Amino acid sequence: MRIVIVGGGKLGYHLATNMLESKHDVRLIEKINSVVCDWQMNWT
């Protein structure tokens, strides 16, 4: 399943990690670049 999450706060983080563990295709939309960079570092 393809999932788009808007917002990279605590809820977005937990939702994304849960969906990734379930092998879903997850995309995160966040307007603050530093948050997105932090996510990419934690996901790799």
Task: Explain what this protein looks like in three dimensions.
This protein has 44 residues and is of the alpha+beta class. The chain has one domain (2-43). Helix content is 52%, strand content 23%. The protein contains 2 helices and 2 strands; from the N terminus they run βαβα. It has helices at residues 10-21, 33-43, and strands spanning 2-6, 25-29. Strands 1-2 form a two-stranded parallel sheet. β1, α1 and β2 (25-29) form a beta-alpha-beta unit. It is globular and about 25 Å long. The chain starts with a strand and ends with a helix.
Question: What order do the helices and strands come in, and which of them pair?
Answer:
Blueprint: E1 2-6, H1 10-21, E2 25-29, H2 33-43
Parallel strand pairs: 1-2
